[in-house]
């Protein structure tokens, strides 16, 4: 009996750690890693900031995150414990941090990258989602309608697939426009790259234009998103698996059958 317990001790400790972190993630593609950036950083950034519910790469010149990655589980979505906050906060770890008031009277929403609703499983995760490092300028119609629809779609997938690895952030197509005197760069759009962590594994990418009218969601392969952005997503997967999954992004594989 003791030998049997010892044989399973690493797995028990692994499960306990995820429970304490507020996450329930199976090993598999993560190779036992529980970090929210376990599958790599899609691009270089000035600061990599770790929070309880997500990790992000912050760019000082654009004054926002270039990417935010996190593990989204259906179990966490089914058991929310934190009510949505209404207060935004400057991150004290960031020099020359963006302030909530920098968006005032700008005509842009303070748009979440890692959604607050995805972080409702724990009070710290919910609060941290309101740090301004997790915020990017979004036109109201984009934020409140199209981007919200994308967030709801990804949550639906997580409830069905159980474990997703999500990378999300702003997309910049050319020369940056700035938000008044704040020097915050205004994105041309917003992306999500999503990996299903449970077999059969699959990937998909989504891109939403940041337009006053809201625009239309584009579904594409992760390869296509990489070609547009210059980023390299999920680079800690094996090359063979990464190449196959990133070239395939059939939307019907994610539909409820």
| Mean pLDDT level | 88
CATH third-level topology: Extracellular Endonuclease, Chain A
- The gross shape turns out to be globular
Instruction: State the end-to-end CA separation.
Output: 43 Å
Q: Which CATH C-level class is it?
A: Alpha Beta
**Largest pleated sheet:** 7 strands, antiparallel
The quaternary structure here is single chain
How many beta-strand elements?
Answer: 11
The helix/strand series, from N terminus to C terminus, equals HEEEHEHEHEEEEEEHH
Task: Write up what this structure looks like.
The protein is of the alpha+beta class and 257 residues long. It has one domain (23-254): 3-Layer(aba) Sandwich (Extracellular Endonuclease, Chain A). It has 6 helices and 11 strands. It has helices at residues 2-20, 74-78, 123-128, 140-161, 222-229, 239-246; strands spanning 47-50, 55-59, 64-73, 109-112, 135-138, 163-171, 177-179, 184-186, 189-196, 202-209, 218-220. The strands form 3 sheets. A 7-stranded antiparallel beta sheet has the order 1-2-3-6-9-10-11, with helices on both faces. The protein is globular.
């Amino acid at each position: 009996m003791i030998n049997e317990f010892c044989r399973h001790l690493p797995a028990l400790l692994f499960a306990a750690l995820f429970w304490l972190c507020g996450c329930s993630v199976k090993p598999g593609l993560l190779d036992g890693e529980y970090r929210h950036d376990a599958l790599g950083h899609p691009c270089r950034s000035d600061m990599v900031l770790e929070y309880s519910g997500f990790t992000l790469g912050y760019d000082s010149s654009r004054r926002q995150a270039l990417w935010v990655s996190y593990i989204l589980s259906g179990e966490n979505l089914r058991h929310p414990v934190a009510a949505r906050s209404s207060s935004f906060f400057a991150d004290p770890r960031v020099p020359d941090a963006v302030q909530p008031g920098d968006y005032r009277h700008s005509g842009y929403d303070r748009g979440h990258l890692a959604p607050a609703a995805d972080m409702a499983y724990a009070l710290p995760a919910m609060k941290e989602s309101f740090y301004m490092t997790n915020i990017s300028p979004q036109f109201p119609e984009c934020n409140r309608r199209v981007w919200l629809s994308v967030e709801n779609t990804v949550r639906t997938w997580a409830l069905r697939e159980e474990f997703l690895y999500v990378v999300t952030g702003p997309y910049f197509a050319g020369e940056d426009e700035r938000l008044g005197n704040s020097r915050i760069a205004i994105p041309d759009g917003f992306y999500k790259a999503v990996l299903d962590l449970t077999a059969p594994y699959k990937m998909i990418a989504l891109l939403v234009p940041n337009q006053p009218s809201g625009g239309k969601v584009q579904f594409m392969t992760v390869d296509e998103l990489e070609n547009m952005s210059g980023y390299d997503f999920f680079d800690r997967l094996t090359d063979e698996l990464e190449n196959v999954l990133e070239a395939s992004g059939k939307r019907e594989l994610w539909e409820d059958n």
